[in-house]
Amino acid sequence: MAGFIDWDTVPLGTKPDDLIARELNVTRRKVCTERNKRGIKPFIGRILSQEGLGLRSIYEAMYDAVLHEQGIQHSHEVPVPNTNFKSDFKINDTFLEIAGMLNFNKYKEKFLNKKFAYEQLGINVVWLEIEKVEILFSNCNLLIKFRENTGCKLCGYNSIRLVKDICHKCYCKTWRQATDREISICGFCQREFPQYSPDSKFCSRQCYWNSMKLDLPSIDWLESEIAAKSMSEVAVELGVDYYTLHKRLYRNKKRKTQ
User: What is the mean pLDDT of the segment spanning 189-216?
Assistant: First the structure.
């Protein structure tokens, strides 16, 4: 447990809450609470690379500074072939990923999906732990750069959550335009659509939900069949669940009584 902490002297908002929490040996929630009490904005989206590009992680900025000091040529946010992922860095033919924030379930799930995809495709990837990045940066003489202007360079929207100097909405648009994709046929409306994921079978959510609807016979036919045999037998003949058929008939009776 950490001793007494004078939170007024802690540089809240100047670096990620997670990093401050580990330095002070407290929980991230505690740091976030103290920062919010003082009306200090989070650190998210204010980090720049040495080239002036917006970064999403302070650890990317740390490693970028190390690479620049050592004069190593590298690229940022490089699309990985045959996947929907982009690596943090690429040096020559090697992709580099910084495995940070693994204590967050959502990020950890994305990390595991990335790692599995790379292994399946046999892609050469080097994974860097944040502790190793911190050690490398501790011996670096270059300072991390920060953004002063928080306006999106495309739409002008002010936000601390900028990626490459653009807001999340504009970033998604540019990412889709730059992503290689195949043209597929929607499984419901049969129209062509750009397939961003190999698992996408429908062009929209509406088509997906429409595909889930049952194409059952008319209510009159169902009632006549059920009058001659049991509802269970009719459900088996139609290949639907008994309770699904029961709900369809119940809703029809309810509408008639209203």
Answer: 76
Distance CA 110, CA 116 (A): 10
Query: For tokens 């709900």, what's the residue?
Result: 247
pLDDT at 96: 93
The DSSP 8-state label assigned to residue 151 in this structure reads: B
pLDDT at residue number 217 = 76
Q: How many CA atoms lie within 13 A of 93 on its CB side?
A: 3
The closest alpha carbon to 122, from 181, 81, 87, 90, belongs to: 81
Cβ atoms of 123 and 86 within 8 Å: the answer is no
Q: Which tokens go with 74?
A: 């590298």
**Over residues 76-84, mean pLDDT:** 86
Instruction: Count the alpha carbons within 13 Å of 187 in the hemisphere toward its beta carbon.
Output: 12
What integer pLDDT is reported at residue 23 of this predicted model?
81
Report which of 106, 102, 100 is spatially closest to residue 134, judged by C-alpha positions: 100
Place of tokens 């000091």: 69
**Beta strand residue intervals within the chain, DSSP E:** 47-48, 54-55, 75-79, 86-91, 94-99, 125-129, 145-146, 182-185, 192-195
Task: Judge whether residue 26 has pLDDT over 70.
Answer: yes
What is the predicted pLDDT for the residue at 44?
A: 64
Helical segments of 13-90, H only: 17-24, 28-37, 58-69
Number of H helices, E strands in the chain: 10, 9
E-assigned strand segments in 31-186? 47-48, 54-55, 75-79, 86-91, 94-99, 125-129, 145-146, 182-185
Global model pTM greater than 0.85: no
Cβ neighbours of residue 42 closer than 8 Å, sequence gap 6 or more: 13, 16, 17, 32, 35, 160
